[in-house]
Amino acid sequence: MKAIANIIKTGLGAVFIALIRFYQYFLSPLLGASCRYTPTCSQYGLEAVKKYGPFKGGWLTLKRIARCNPWGGHGHDPVP
């Protein structure tokens, strides 16, 4: 049972990473750089998913994207 959960977690993490890479290579150049943080939100997402897995890493990424707006913060915000 634990092996199946690990396979699902690894596969889902790979899907998240592939989606972020697709955004970085194909959509981001068209939309232009607009992230208020360093590292960028997409790089933050990659680091969070690699460090914490798809569930916690995905949640941290969603929280970061929600903060990345004109009324949010800015500056250096690394993955915890």
What does this structure look like?
It is globular, with a radius of gyration of 14 Å. With 80 residues, the protein is mainly alpha-helical. The protein has one domain. The termini are far apart.
Shape: globular
In order across it, which strands form the biggest sheet?
A: 1-2
Total domains: 1
Please report the distance between the alpha carbons of the first and last residues: 30 Å
Structural class determined from secondary elements: mainly alpha
Number of strands: 2
Number of helices: 2
**Cα-atom radius of gyration:** 14 Å
Q: What's the rounded overall pLDDT mean?
A: 93
Order of helices and strands: HEHE
Instruction: Report the biggest beta sheet as strand number plus sense, adding barrel if it closes.
Output: 2 strands, parallel
Beta content: 5-15%
Poorly predicted spans: none
**Helicity, as a percent range:** over 70%
Function: Could be involved in insertion of integral membrane proteins into the membrane.
Organism: Mucilaginibacter auburnensis
Subcellular location: Cell membrane
Protein name: Putative membrane protein insertion efficiency factor
